[in-house]
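# nightly structure sweep
# worker-07 picked up a monomer target from the shared queue
# config: single-sequence mode, recycle default, output format = structure tokens
# input follows
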Amino acid sequence: MAQAASWKPNGYPKLAKLMGRSSEAAIFRRFNEINMLNLLNLQAEIAALRKEFWLQCNADAIRGPPYENLSLSFETQRSVNSVNDPKYEHQYHILLRLRAKMKEYNELLLQVSQLSKLNAPLKEDLSFFRTWIQDPKGGADFLAKNNNVESFLYEPEFTKDLLTLSQFSSPGPENDPFVRLLRKRVVYLYHLCIGQRLENRSRIVDEESQTVQYDESAINKGANIIATVLSSTLPLIAIVILNRFQRTETRINIAVGITAAFALILALFTNARRVEVFAATATFAAVEVVFIGSVAKS
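# output follows
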């Protein structure tokens, strides 16, 4: 019992422990090409069974009673069995095989469809994962040491085939590139200045490498607050800049530049749709126009 308590996991058990404590590290391969191959294989088998079924229906139609009526009644299909002719496989048997194959095909198709909805890992999460794998105090590069097919599961060439179970990787409106950038920098600065000095064992996801995790919901909330404050002050900042110039023509030119920069920032750093970018830019430009017009009159 004492030996079990003192045992420190390594390799896959240690990686599983990290994934269990931090969903951002729960990164897996999709094996998308294998799923497609299996779907294509099942599709071909179903097509062959379908052809076999229709050929059997045609053969039964010209065979005479009772086989000529099999296509008219499922009850008749079930009642006629191979006792009459041991070498004969009638429609119902083929239909049962087709049903089983269709069930397998539909289940796999739905599973692949659900897999396709899972998000790819964020760049920062994937970077942390690969760093931890190679860290002597983390994964100690155990995958590469296997020197087999497992060594290449997370290589950069397979990045597009990776998925994550983290709920915070969704590219929704509250998780745009700007918020993710703020979240990454703010958390780094917080950990550097405050977090690493606070002892909280519940945050540690890997004791040996001292990897810690902060509450993602709190991080998102803080990042969203900062983003909201910054976006709310942008019109005022634009007015302050315009107020430093006296000529109306100069103000108009500067307003054009600021508006273009505002639209570019929205397009690059948010997940806003084109119509939303247009609406926000039009509102922003309206504030500038009102200011320029009111100052010109005065």
